[in-house]
Design goal:
This is Glycosyltransferase family 4 protein. The protein is of the alpha/beta class. The chain contains 11 helices and 13 strands.
């Protein structure tokens, strides 16, 4: 099949440091190439891919040192290039939320749109009611809940290349790990409380966005004085395996409807179990007692830390290989692509029975 992949331009594909969507698009693109498909990636010139690259910007927006730049302009230019070349592809796979909807109404039936973020936002229902002809893909079943009426074509879990991280059945460290964004919804403060209550060291590898600096300085930084807590900062892919693989467990104490939680399967790829809050997609990723524990309180999390010896780290890796490899992800998407190639033409751009609200 001739497949176009259209990710955001905020990070490189894959990102050099933190970043989820562009990372998954990179893994998916390469896996599709390995399966024998003709794949074109529309991205920035610093992308690394085995597909044909169409560079629509010189570098990822976050890495661009120029303080005067426009994300919207960059994405519109990319979409216009995709629009110009749309007839070259059997399927157009978008990862840019709804930004492309007004531009591709006449060929919506040949598109797939994976939604990577939270969907419980005020203005989203109006958009997905106005453009019901676009087939959508969720990354967990729970992610769909706020927009159950939308045109869902399927759910495809994220996946990682099986050889990206090696399993660590006997970790060298004796610490808990927190990896992600330093933000209120990720709850690094809760991770610190769990570590202190369990008497176990915690290493925090986290990105501090501009929007989260106040939270970091006011809430988290005062908690870093404990000798049990070490703040490492943002790390790249090369450091992840050592960081996660040598941890006794990954703490995932989220306080929001996480659509997937890529870091959970990154830990599992290393054989590291996950202690995660019963929130968002967690029950769809963590098999309680097999590759980690699902908890509802800090007290339960502390008990889970004490039960880590009951988890077989080889089984954690086995669950990853069975459910969350990039090859499985790509195969599931190919099934959706083939279904799109067989469906009837797209619906009219504006449904006759459209009602606002």
């Amino acid at each position: 099949m001739r497949i176009a992949q259209i990710p955001p331009l905020c990070e490189s594909t894959p990102p050099r440091l933190y970043g989820g969507t562009e990372r998954i698009v990179a893994y998916l693109t390469d896996a599709l190439v390995d399966l024998g498909h003709e794949v074109t990636l529309f991205s920035t010139a610093d992308a690394r891919t085995r597909a044909r690259l169409v560079a629509v910007r010189d570098q990822a927006i976050r890495l661009d040192p120029n303080p005067l730049k426009s994300e919207l302009a960059a994405h519109l230019s990319m979409l216009q290039e995709v629009r110009r070349r749309a007839d070259e592809f059997d399927v157009l796979h978008f990862h840019v939320d709804m930004l492309h909807f007004p531009l591709f109404e006449d060929c919506a039936g040949r598109t797939i749109t994976t939604l990577h973020g939270r969907l419980d936002l005020k203005d989203l229902p109006e958009v997905y009611r106005r453009w019901p002809q676009y087939p959508l893909v969720s990354i967990s079943h729970q992610q769909r809940e706020p927009l159950r009426f939308a045109h869902w074509a399927g759910t495809v879990a994220h996946g990682l290349p099986a050889d990206l991280y090696r399993p660590h059945p006997r970790p060298k460290g004796h610490y808990l790990a927190f990896l992600g964004r330093m933000s209120p919804e990720k709850r690094p403060d809760r991770a610190i409380a769990i570590a202190l209550a369990s008497g176990m060291p915690l290493k925090i590898a986290a990105k501090v966005d501009v929007a989260d600096r106040a939270y970091f300085h006011e809430v988290v930084r005062p908690l870093l004085d404990s000798p049990l807590v070490e703040f490492i900062g943002e790390i790249d892919d090369g450091a992840k395996e050592t960081f996660l693989g040598n941890a006794a467990a990954l703490l995932f104490p989220i306080d929001w409807p996480e659509p997937f939680g890529l870091v959970m399967i990154e830990a599992m790829a290393c054989g590291t179990p996950v202690i995660a809050w019963n929130c968002g997609s967690v029950p769809e990723v963590v098999d309680d007692g097999v590759n980690g524990f699902i908890v509802d309180s800090e007290a339960e999390a502390v008990q889970a830390v004490r039960r880590l010896g009951t988890i077989d780290r080889r089984q954690v890796r086995a669950v990853f290989e069975r459910r969350f490899s990039a090859e499985i992800m790509a195969s599931n998407y190919v099934d959706l692509y083939e279904r799109r190639c067989r469906v009837a033409p797209a619906l009219p751009a504006w449904p006759l029975a459209y009602e606002a609200g």
